[in-house]
């Protein structure tokens, strides 16, 4: 009560006891006060990771980590420092994602290619062959050479890739049919009916595989020719032109006992066989047929060494892919000003790569080759999508034809604006489907304007959006080694998203062996630098 005085207890003898003395103790950061030595920053305790055998005395642990460490070791959680590991193939095999694919988004020069190279190297160590189907900078050539892989150069005056070459499909079909005949012969000699039935079933399977293989090969060649014509014209061919090309390819396969070239395709159309004249609806009038095929022949001439593509697609393939080792298509000889040639080359490499993988898996299904796993990298996706009308459908059909198991896939572009810049809403929806269908989506530094577009394909919380935007901050300027360099907060940092689950923010960590393989600015170094 106001005005009352504190009363002290009196002892039986009438004496008073004094209050106990207050003992001063330092806080968690030391003595508080001016000049008392209070610590402003407390260093976090060192964290170590080991197996239960190595640190068995500490088992069970009092705390755990929520970050997965399955697959290629990537780095550490940016907030907790916990180790993180993952890749699309390992996560798919452990049931963590529905399909072995990843889509990588991020601004240039923030480490997208370095992350993918790191994953490529880790998977190669597990025996999974990387296939880099188009390297424009180049970002992957040094890595593939270090892995003792195959480097295939492509470009005007630098190499040739025949888009009408069925590759190994023809030889594989012959092997499958020979295997079917062998199974039938054994079935005829078998005395056990059950064994004979099994052999006949194996023969039927081999024949069906051969038929499917040739059908897929035909579809890929048709898709590739129509895609190149789309790039040449900046408009897709008409329906009757696609039908003409389709029938002409069948005629070529029947007539020739060698691999056809674009020049052979032109000659078939010029010969005007009855099958093509019927498709052209010439009604017996040759002039109507010529009018119907003039534009098609002009487009094909531009691919046959007479246009800007030179003869890179019209001559026999220089180096067939060797799927027993890592492979990269080096497209760095194509200038950035030749966007249409870059897009056409990427499509040709993707088509060739998927076709060759299809052959390898078909032979493995028939027991004629050992089973191999592959990790396919499709970089600079935006260049192909923007190269002409209908290119989204072409890319979509290429990837959807890859129905084989044991193949991981990475698609890489800068931002969702690359996909939203397509002319029609239908194409934009199909392009967003590339992201939506991916098993995991990896986001690097992104500007704030991308968040609304990205949320259409991937659910991001406000905190996750703020993190990605903060990583895109240009950062401060600091004097490092006597030169002004920017310290970018988002360099080498990525958010791994799977469906609607919270994303895992990770800082990429490289080994000393990798550092020399991840230098993409070699031309900016002085000649005397090591």
Give the helix/strand layout.
Elements: E1 73-77, E2 83-85, H1 88-93, E3 101-105, H2 112-125, E4 129-135, H3 141-146, E5 150-153, H4 169-189, H5 193-233, H6 239-255, H7 262-271, H8 274-280, H9 286-306, E6 327-330, H10 339-365, E7 374-378, H11 381-385, H12 391-400, E8 407-412, H13 417-420, H14 425-436, E9 440-443, H15 451-455, H16 462-471, E10 476-480, E11 483-487, E12 493-497, E13 504-508, H17 512-515
Parallel strand pairs: 3-8, 3-9, 4-6, 4-7, 5-6, 7-8
Antiparallel strand pairs: 1-2, 1-13, 9-12, 10-11, 12-13
Helix pairs in contact: 4-5, 5-6, 5-9, 5-10, 5-12, 6-7, 6-8, 7-9
Structural class: alpha/beta
Which strands sit side by side, in order, in the main sheet? 2-1-13-12-9-3-8-7-4-6-5
- Biggest sheet, in brief? 11 strands, mixed
Helix content: 40-55%
Query: What is the alpha-carbon Rg in Å?
Result: 32 Å
Shape: globular
Number of helices: 17
Number of strands: 13
Strand content: 5-15%
Describe this structure in words.
- The protein has 530 residues and is α/β, with parallel strands linked by helices.
- It contains 17 helices and 13 strands.
- It has helices at 88-93, 112-125, 141-146, 169-189, 193-233, 239-255, 262-271, 274-280, 286-306, 339-365, 381-385, 391-400, 417-420, 425-436, 451-455, 462-471, 512-515; strands at residues 73-77, 83-85, 101-105, 129-135, 150-153, 327-330, 374-378, 407-412, 440-443, 476-480, 483-487, 493-497, 504-508.
- An eleven-stranded mixed beta sheet has the order 2-1-13-12-9-3-8-7-4-6-5, with helices on both faces. Strands 10-11 form a two-stranded antiparallel sheet.
- β12 and β13 form a beta hairpin.
- α5 (193-233) packs across α6 (239-255).
- Mean pLDDT is 85; it is low at 1-6.
């Amino acid at each position: 009560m106001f005005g009352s005085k504190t009363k002290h207890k009196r002892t039986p003898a009438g004496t008073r006891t004094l209050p106990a003395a207050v003992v001063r103790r330092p806080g968690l950061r030391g003595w508080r006060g001016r000049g008392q030595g209070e610590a402003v920053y407390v260093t976090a305790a060192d964290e170590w990771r080991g197996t239960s055998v190595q640190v068995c005395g500490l088992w069970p642990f009092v705390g755990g980590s929520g970050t997965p460490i399955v697959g290629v070791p990537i780095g550490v959680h940016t907030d907790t420092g916990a180790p993180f590991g993952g890749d699309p193939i390992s996560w798919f095999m452990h049931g963590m994602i529905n399909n072995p694919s990843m889509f990588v988004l991020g601004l240039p020069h923030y480490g997208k290619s370095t992350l993918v190279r790191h994953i490529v190297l880790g998977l190669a160590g597990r025996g999974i062959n990387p296939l880099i189907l188009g390297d424009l900078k180049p970002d992957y050539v040094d890595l593939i050479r270090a892995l003792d892989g195959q480097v295939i150069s492509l470009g005007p005056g630098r190499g040739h890739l025949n888009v009408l070459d069925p590759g190994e499909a023809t030889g594989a079909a012959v092997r499958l049919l020979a295997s079917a005949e062998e199974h039938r012969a054994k079935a005829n000699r078998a005395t056990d009916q059950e064994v004979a039935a099994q052999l006949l079933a194996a023969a039927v399977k081999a024949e069906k595989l051969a038929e499917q293989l040739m059908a897929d090969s035909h579809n890929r060649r048709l898709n590739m020719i129509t895609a190149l014509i789309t790039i040449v014209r900046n408009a897709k061919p008409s329906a009757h032109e696609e039908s003409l090309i389709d029938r002409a390819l069948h005629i070529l396969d029947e007539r020739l006992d060698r691999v056809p070239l674009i020049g052979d395709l032109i000659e078939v159309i010029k010969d005007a066989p009855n099958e093509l004249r019927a498709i052209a609806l010439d009604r017996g009038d040759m002039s109507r047929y010529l009018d119907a095929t003039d534009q098609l022949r002009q487009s094909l001439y531009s691919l046959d060494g007479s246009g800007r593509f030179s003869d890179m697609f019209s001559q026999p393939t220089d180096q067939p892919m060797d799927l027993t080792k890592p492979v990269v298509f080096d497209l760095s000889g194509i200038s950035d000003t030749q966007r249409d040639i870059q897009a056409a080359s990427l499509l040709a490499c993707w088509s060739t790569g998927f076709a060759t993988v299809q052959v390898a898996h078909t032979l493995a299904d028939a027991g004629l080759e050992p089973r191999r796993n592959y990790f396919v990298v499709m970089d600079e996706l935006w260049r192909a999508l923007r190269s002409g009308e209908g290119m989204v459908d072409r890319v979509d059909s290429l990837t959807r034809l890859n129905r084989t198991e044991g193949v991981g896939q990475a698609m890489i572009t800068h931002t969702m604006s690359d996909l939203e810049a397509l002319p029609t809403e239908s194409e934009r929806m199909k392009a967003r489907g590339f992201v939506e269908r991916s098993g995991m989506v990896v986001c690097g530094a992104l500007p704030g304007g991308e968040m609304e577009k990205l949320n259409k394909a991937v659910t991001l919380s406000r905190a996750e959006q703020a993190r990605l935007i903060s990583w895109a901050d240009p950062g401060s300027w600091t004097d490092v080694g006597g030169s002004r360099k920017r310290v970018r907060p988002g360099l080498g940092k990525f958010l791994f998203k799977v469906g609607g689950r919270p994303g895992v923010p990770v800082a990429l960590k490289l080994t000393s062996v990798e550092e020399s393989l991840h230098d993409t600015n070699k031309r900016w170094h002085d000649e005397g630098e090591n």
